[in-house]
Amino acid sequence: MSLIPNSWHWKELKLALICLLCSLPIVLFFLINFHLAIIIFILWSTLIINIAYFNPISLNILYVRFFFEYLLERPSILSQLRPLGLDLFNTQLSDYSLSFDEHVAKQFRKEFDYLKSFKNKKMSSAQKESYDVIGYFINMNLKREYSDEFRYHSYLINQMMGPQTELISFIVKYHRILKLNDAEAYIIRVQRISKAFDQLIDQQIERRRRNIETPRFVLQRVFDSLHAFREQLQNEPNQSPLMISFIENLNDSICSKEKQNELISRLLKILKTDVLEAHDRLLNVLREDLSNAKTDHGLWKLPNGDKYYKLCLEFHTTTNMSPDEIFELGKKHVERIQNEMRSILKEKQIENWHDFRVSINKLEHNVDQIYENDEESRGKIIADYSQLIDNIDNEMHRYFSPACRPTTKCTVERIPKFKEATSPGAYYFPASLDGKTPGTFFANLRNIGEVIKFKMATLAYHEAVPGHHFQ
User: Fold this and answer.
1) Domain membership flag for residue 199
2) By the 8 A CB rule, do 421 and 446 touch?
3) Of the candidates 18, 248, 288, 390, which lies 20 to 30 Å from 460 by C-alpha distance?
4) According to the 3-state scheme, what is the secondary structure of 365-396?
5) How many Å apart are CA 172 and CA 190, to the nearest integer?
6) Is 275 domain-assigned?
7) Are 46 and 105 found together in one domain?
8) Number of structural domains, the chain?
9) Are residues 99 and 184 in the same domain?
10) Is residue 156 included in any domain, yes or no?
11) CA 187/CA 137 separation, integer angstroms
């Protein structure tokens, strides 16, 4: 059973914590004396209210409050990380509403003002480092994602990691079912996909109103993926990953067979009504956008697109280099890397080694670099990735101290079939803080011909170890 009512959000939780903490001095009335209890109550309550609502007296308290607020308003992240092993708000999904965007923008502005008030105060080196990192994070978000000018410049609905598919993946991967309440929460969470999709529709319509047009190729891939999932919901709802995951996690230790069948029937009904209808509503909006979509892709076509592009570069590179400077730097490094690779190709006696494109293409088609196109090879790819990641991890002690290395292993899984077509070659999902859910490297096996053996290590370094797993 969740320790906190699942209908609560951060505001209600903060108020409850304040009441709880402020009531502690009352206990002192029984332990010490009335007058001392009143004095402590006033001082203690003043401190707690200051921490919760105003500029805290300590920089460290400000950090803690900011991160608590950030996490507790994002139930999906809470379920992924599972702090202290607790399943907080496990009937909730993260909020994609326009009003939540506005709320976060106000919250970030307030916290940034509080943070800047500490600028001239004495800090330890660790505090200064935290101050710079958190300040950079908040400031860049205020310039981009939560600015009035650029709040809707990102394509929230997209083919790579858009919420329209990530919501499904999140529930399947991170919602634990260890007891009956967890199963009930799972069903409620699935039902809330409908509300989340309506929020995505509002987001898409708001972008349309602001002339933020999603590129045609993005719309088409999202539409095709959603339509395929919708068809499965209508024709084979029992084969939906949401249903399969639910059934796999139910067992007799959770509830009786009769209760299991009842839960499955309830989930099936929700999939065939709420979730299916939500897909239809979103597909209708995307169909309208597709009918008017253009092929002039690029941020330059958006209002003040050049300025937004520069902000994105600043955020991702932490430099003030111009786009042209970064482009020229990139060309120099590409030339350097290609020359190093030519030396290796020459050493390996690869034909046409001097012609980079031709030689790499030839290497990709070597028999020793490709897998057979069958299901057995898909299992072999997963096993090879697992072995590769283990081998890399065994060498990491040479570069990272034990304190910098994660305690959980990185496992390898296949990207779920329902999202293979629009997903990249691989991606990573983080481990929970309690270690019960490992970090996971997901490999895309939609087309075995896309998996080239000599490229696997590069992908594993970036997406798994050290990569995102250490990050």
Assistant:
1) yes
2) yes
3) 248
4) CCHHHCCCCCHHHHHHHHHHHHHHHHHHHHHH
5) 10
6) yes
7) yes
8) 4
9) no
10) no
11) 35
Bridge partners for 443 per DSSP: 414, 426
Q: Quick one: how far is CA 277 from the chain centroid?
A: 25
Tallying the residues shown for the chain, one arrives at 471
Amino acid at 21: L
Same structural domain, 346 and 377: no
Classify residue 200 by burial, with Cβ atoms within 10 Å: 0-12, 13-18, 19+.
buried
Number of neighbouring beta carbons within 10 Å of residue 246: 24
pTM of the predicted model, to two decimals? 0.82
Enter the tokens of residue 239: 């084969």
Report which residue type is found at 291.
Answer: S
Taking the chain (471 residues) in runs of 10, the rounded mean pLDDT of each run is: 46 52 52 55 53 63 84 87 78 95 94 90 89 93 93 94 94 94 97 98 96 94 96 96 96 95 98 98 98 89 94 93 96 95 88 85 89 94 98 95 91 92 91 87 95 95 95 86
323-329-333 Cα angle (round to 5): 140
Helix/strand/coil for 413? strand
Task: Decide: 56 and 114 in contact? Cβ < 8 Å.
Answer: yes
Alpha-carbon distances, residue 244 vs 146, 153, 236, 255, 454 (angstroms) = 38, 36, 11, 18, 35
In a domain, 341, yes or no: yes
CA dihedral 95, 98, 103, 108 (to 10 degrees): 90
Same domain, 291 and 178: yes
Q: Which residue has the tokens 């730097």?
A: 329
Dihedral pair phi/psi, residue 101, rounded to 5°: -55, -45
Distance CA 118, CA 277 (A): 50
Could you give the angle at which helices 163-174 and 180-191 cross, rounded to 10 degrees?
170
CA distance 353 to 342: 6
